[in-house]
Amino acid sequence: MKAQAYRILRPVAGFAPLLLTGCGRAPAFDVLGSFFPAWLVCFAVAIVLAVLCRGLLQPRVEIAFPILVYPSLTAIFTLALWLALFR
């Protein structure tokens, strides 16, 4: 029984450090003594970018479903900024 348990635990023990590598330090900004997560800063910038896109697109293009388009733009900008700046 010990040999079978050893065969199972050996790969698990080798894989465990890979799972724990993400537990390092969370990317955060110090704003007036309070730490904000990086994704929150990216989200705030993405909202500004989505508003700018709305200002640029609205006179030229008719948006069929704005309730879907603008949150999607915000999500795309948020994820793109986070990937570009923090990964």
List keywords for this structure.
87 residues; mainly alpha; 9% strand; single chain; two-stranded antiparallel sheet
Provide an overview of this structure:
The structure is a single chain. The protein is mainly alpha-helical. It contains 3 helices and 2 strands; from the N terminus they run αββαα. The chain has helices at residues 2-20, 38-57, 66-86; strands at 28-31, 34-37. It has a two-stranded antiparallel sheet with strand order 1-2. Helix 2 packs across helix 3. It is elongated.
Largest sheet: 2 strands, antiparallel
Which strand-content bin applies to the residues? 5-15%
Main sheet: strand order:
1-2
Distance between the termini: 44 Å
Q: How large is the radius of gyration?
A: 22 Å
> pLDDT below 50 for ≥5 consecutive residues: which ranges?
none
Could you give the order of the helices and strands? HEEHH
Apparent shape: elongated
Compute the number of strand runs: 2
Helix-strand category: mainly alpha
**Residue-averaged pLDDT, rounded?**
82
Looking at how many chains there are and whether they match, the oligomeric state comes to: single chain
Quickly count the helices.
3
| Fraction of residues in helix | 55-70%
